[in-house]
Amino acid sequence: MSKELIRLRDLCMAFDDELVLDHINLYINDSEFLTLLGPSGCGKTTTLRIIGGFTTPTSGDVTFDGVRINDVPSHKRQINTVFQKYALFPHLDVFENIAFGLRIPKTDPESRRKVKLPESEIQERVLEMLKVVNLKGFEKRAVSSLSGGQQQRVAIARALALSPDILCFDEPTSALDPELKRIQQAMGITFIYVTHDQEEALAMSDTVVVMDEGKIQQIGTPEDIYNEPKNAFVADFIGESNIIDGIMRADGVVEIFNRRFQCVDVVIRPEDVDIVPEGQGQLKGTVTSVTFKGMQYDIIVDFKGFKWLIQTTDHCPEGARIGIKIDPDGIHVMKKSAYSGMFGDYSSFSEEYDELDDATLSSDEEESGDEE
Asked: Are strands 59-64 and 67-68 parallel, antiparallel or unpaired?
């Protein structure tokens, strides 16, 4: 069983009377890759800065290995941070950038005297870190001659050289997803990663913490977050979702587009919808938009004024009448929340698609309804 390393208890943070973190409770284990995921302004970077010691919370506690560290400055924590701007020293080569922290004398806990590391130990440690980040042979290179990804590797190596227990990443800009996971596993330490990119979070993390408006919306594995979202915000933020008002008629039975007995949100992922001939469909609708995405078509289908996104390898022309079938395992039911009704209808989905026209139902459809 993994050992708990960091715990945030009832953490609040306010700037100029604006609450940006609202009673955050979270624990982070040793050797865990944890990602703080959410849109800009959700509080993820503030949370990271509090963990790193760069910001003091307004209230609540931060503990490291069971010890409260609210007032411990960043340079005395066993936590290092790789920021968006890597802050490499342009006048030093790669070797000296990585060695910089190792050359600073450390206080011996017994004698209380400043002690320098032997040069041989510095040499060994730097070369080891270059190997870990796949920059072996780059030690004499000028950092200005490196690509952005290589500069990020130098920043990571410099942070790892000091043997921290936790390494934090504040929205790094280079795509090193597989490499970061490999480095984390090779070093056996905890990584805390901040991003707004859902694909990064799902690909690398052991645990994903989804945040919005200063609150934690859900904590879970990537599979849990994607397949079992707790509310409409999580369902919409993690991948594409069709989120519909529905009724729990009985265990395992959900009714939509009909009279309501009990309010729930129904989530159906676009890839879980099968297109069938109109007469064979559980629901029938009209295709209003088709976009080719390379691996699949993104199809917008109008069901009585509610537009769904369906991702399929089958092409359907605009204006076609189609039926759909949904496997029971593809339906996820959530309780109503403050986010209900805010997400999941693609009527106004204009970031990737053109303005969509409302589909007009024929008179016979209005009499019989689009459901069977």
From this structure: antiparallel
